[in-house]
From TrEMBL:
GO terms of molecular function: flavin adenine dinucleotide binding; geranylgeranyl reductase activity; oxidoreductase activity, acting on the CH-CH group of donors, NAD or NADP as acceptor
Residue positions binding FAD: 13, 32, 43-44, 46, 95, 119, 274, 286-287
Upper classification of the organism: Archaea, Methanobacteriati, Methanobacteriota, Thermococci, Thermococcales
Protein name, UniProt field: Digeranylgeranylglycerophospholipid reductase
Species this chain originates from: Thermococcus waiotapuensis
GO cellular component, one term: membrane
Amino acid sequence: MKYDVVVVGAGIAGPIVARNVAKAGYSVLLIDKKPAIGSPKQCAEGISIKVFDKYDIPYDRRYINREIYGAKIYSPGGYELELRYNEVSGVILERKVFDKMLAYYAAKAGADVLARTEALDVIRKDGKIAGIKAKHEDEPVEIYAEIIVAADGVESTVARKAGINTYAPPHEFDSSYEYEMLIEGFDPDLIHLWFGNEVAPRGYVWVFPKDEDRANVGIGIASDHQQTAKYYLDKWLKENNIPMKKILEVNVGLVPVGGFVKELAKENVLVVGDAARQVNPMHGGGMAEAMEAGTIASKWIVKALEEENLSLLQNYTTEWWEKDGKRLERVLRVRRVTEKFTDEDLDLFIQILSGADAEKIAGGDYVEVIKALLTHPKVLMSRRRLSLLKELL
């Protein structure tokens, strides 16, 4: 098989790249090792409403479980911070359908799509990467391409075989555990987040409503913690008297929350999405970041093919770091500072922050918020708190 571009991985970033490049008239193959694209899910399934227009994705009710109007944050001491909007701010997806439909949109744009096709290695000819070795329906196959896109997740085989350094230490990953279950007593128009060192070390517990009485209930904690994510999630459910007798699905995952890949393009290979650690380090969400990276990557792939100049692919690295990388590094600084917070710190900050402040901090636009916090009497009274917040400036 011979294509202009082969995209390995049909999560979020891969289909965006495949669709955009195919729309420009080039031959594209999108492959995924799973028999059914989108399954199993490893995601809380929440995403901003803004992505649909921004990345030209249909607002299709087939993969939208519920519209969300904001969020509610709970501190260890029981203080609450609510962000509620008059209009829809986000949705809870059905990722099993959403991912498959993204692959469908790529196919409709002209890309070929093959499920149950696993990339095993790269093909080298005359010292250059010329394609990939894969296994389709358990049969070996060679796929040749001018450009290869590694969108094959956290443990990217393609990036590793191409010599791209994707190493990050264990502390830069979160371990997640999630039940899709029947649950009542929480406002289904909001997502709910609980923080605390005894609740979720370095992370949080979430309830993302999919129906009035059904939700994704999960947790993310530092992957190098001595206890498991499941231990803390089950503990939280028990302490909150939430019965575990109506569990519809169990999902487990590893989420990169740091260790962004520096070299996003090497020769004719590009790395995008989780494979490049393009995830928000604060909340662990990576769908919007994958869409952005896929959009930037596809732009430079098309230009490289148009001008028959593969060196233009290096501009993907430059543009991503300018547009998204610097912002995510600021968010990473927030994550590293919040790891040092005590439960008393978390109680205080949730009491004195507004919803808009919390949103800015999670998005990396926090300088003015931090400056304001530094003038608060309860911050001024603590040298430790002053020192921690000054680390962000």
